[in-house]
Amino acid sequence: MLKKSWINLLLIFLPLLAGVIELILITMFAQALPPYMMTADFGVFAFVFGMTIRNLGVVAFMMGLFITGLLLIFYNRTLRRQAETYTLVEGAKLEAEQGRRRFLRRLDHEIKNPLTGLRAALVNMQEVKTEVDRKRAVDNASNAVERLTRLLTDLRKLSDLGERPIELWQVDVPDLLQDVVDAAHVLPAYGGREVNLLIPKVPSPFPMITGDRDLLVLAVYNLVENALKFTCETDSVEIRVNEDGRAILIEVADSGVGIPAEDVSKIFEELYRGSNARSTEGSGLGLALVYRIISLHGGQITVRSSQEEPRGTVFTIRLPVNKKKVTLLPSS
Amino acid sequence: MRPGPFSTFNLLKMLPDRSTLLLADDDPTIADSLAPFLERAGFHVLVVSDGVNALEKAQTHHPELIILDVLMPRMDGRETLRRLRKAKIWTPTILLTQVGEASERALALEEGADDYLNKPFDPHELLARIRAVLRRVRPGERSLSAAWLLTANDLSLDRRARRATLSGETVELTPKALAVLEYLMTHPDEAVTRERLLEAVWGWEYPAGTRTVDTRMAELRRALDDDPTDPRFIETIPGEGYRFIASVHGEG
After folding, report:
1. A330 and B175 in contact by Cβ < 8 A?
2. Are A160 and B175 inside 8 Å of each other by CB?
3. How confident is the model at residue B206 (pLDDT cuts 50, 70, 90)?
4. B78-117 burial, b for 16+ CB within 10 Å, e for fewer?
5. Does ipTM come in above 0.95?
6. CATH topology of domain B8-136
7. Number of cross-chain residue pairs from A and B with Cβ atoms under 8 Å apart
8. Residues A178 and A209 in one domain
9. Which residues of chain A have pLDDT under 70?
């Protein structure tokens, strides 16, 4: 950066210097004429010529000043921009570093618990006498392993999403949502409830979006699973879809306890657990995964939640509608 | 095309496994736990801890099947497999991959692995894979997994060009559906569960996933003009999964 600013300084003063030197040279030239040339005609000629040259010199000098001014303004702006970029980069670096540390801290926490359970179960397996106790220890060990496996699988999904290209294909959203509702039936949290699916009849057919159907199913499914997990059996869960010509809006709404205000801004972070989510099963990566999938599709996801009446949580996914027909893009 | 009650397929299934397996994994906790497990299942297990040793043992001991970890010191599993195939040793191989990256899976197929499992896996799953592979391959013969061009009746799949043709005409398929077809065609006559397909093609399992498989299968059947009630290629096994019923030939 230092080297560059020296070049900039040189560029500023070069025109100025050129103007001054020119002026001096011209003045010397005009006065250094030998006396035999001082005839009247030549005098007039020399005078006009000299003045012209001198004026040219003045013009050059003025231009030099002008360019110097411009360069100064430009230089100043560059300096400021460089400083700004520097701050931005440093800020991003700092944030990334903080994010990484936060992630590791949370990961440590997520691994610690099942691992502690596993160690205890192993000790029990060696020490207990009765078959019933031994079976309990084995069950506990498998549970812990199950939890660790789930965590690892979700971490892998997240890292996979960052690396592989997504499939771009025409996706029928109402059809996709129906699949999610059908798949949600097998969830233990489902408990014989009805997940309301609202699909408008007009326009027909509903506009398509371009994307990876499987990933989108995963995203909406995660939201529905969350909604079911954080509600009790008297609460309702609803999936709505709508469009405004430019985007398709998918909403997953529930009348559950809601998310505490201080958690709302952080729920899409990896491994973040809200204060009322600590006791609930899950890898802590579900919403981060949803966020990543929607971003990859050029969409946005927002959440509004209230813990007071009328309470509940609404996640809104906005996915751009494709205008032109998109054909198959080869995956890498 | 389904094997009758006394076909070699079913007779082989009844025979106890006394095959020799070569297990190559550099992590002693894995090798030390898996080897006794496989021994209990009736196999004779040779354990090595790196690719160079695996290559050596494969040539001297002629195991019936090789289980290779991908990340190993001295020579990784992929390189080992490449050298084995280059030396025209067609011993069926299962690759144990560390991460379920799509690229890694594609490579596993490219280098002629017969199957692959993502770590961490249930040892029973490995056992099921071993049995399925041993049932499928004929000793000394190049397996379908190492073939570039697969044909079944009028259907052919060019794995390098990623193109399927039916009676000479290109079949329009999404990359996922093509990968599903590829997996089924390299594992013919085998009951493939939806979970297995998810892990092999999508790289991860998830609850809504089994439906995802069905969606792709419907697409595949539509494209192949295959009637599910009277299938020529893909048969549904209720409550289990799918099976590729046409006989498959591999070339190149």
Report:
1. yes
2. no
3. low
4. bbbbbbbbeeebbbbbbbbbebbbbebbebbbbbbbbbbb
5. no
6. Rossmann fold (3.40.50)
7. 60
8. yes
9. 1-12, 15, 26-27, 29-43, 46, 276-280, 323-332
Q: Is the pLDDT of residue B8 over 70?
A: no
The contact set of A with B (CB < 8 A) is 149, 152-153, 156-157, 159-160, 163-164, 167, 169, 179-180, 182-184, 186-187, 213-214, 217-218, 221, 225, 328, 330-332
Distance of CA B23 to CAs B31, B72, B168, Å?
7, 12, 42
Residue with tokens 């398509």: A208
CATH code at B147-251: 1.10.10.10
Domain assignment of residue A2, given as a range: 1-164
A293: closest CA among A98, A138, A180, A158? A158
Q: Do the domain assignments include residue A328?
A: no
Q: What is the least distance, in Å, from the CA of B161 to any CA of chain A?
A: 11
Q: Between the CA atoms of A58, A61, A66 and A72, what dihedral angle is there, to the nearest 10 degrees?
A: -160
The runs of H, that is alpha helices, within chain B are 8-14, 28-40, 51-61, 77-86, 102-110, 123-136, 175-186, 194-197, 209-224
Which residue of A156, A167, A187 is in closest CB contact with B99?
Answer: A156
Residue A53's pLDDT is: 75
Judge contact between A132 and B184, C-beta under 8 A. Answer: no
By DSSP bridging, strand B192-193 and strand B169-170 are unpaired
Task: Decide if A214 and B203 are in contact by the 8 Å CB cutoff.
Answer: no
Dist CA A209 CA A172 (whole Å): 7
CA-nearest residue to A157 within chain B is B204
Q: How far is A243 from chain B (nearest CA, A)?
A: 24
Do B23 and B67 contact (CB within 8 A), yes or no? yes
B202: nearest CA partner in chain A = A214
Q: How many distinct structural domains can be found in chain A?
A: 2
Mutual orientation of helices A173-184 and B209-224 as an angle, nearest 10°? 130
> Would you place residue B89 in the very low, low, confident or very high pLDDT band (cuts 50, 70, 90)?
confident
CA A278 to chain centre: 26
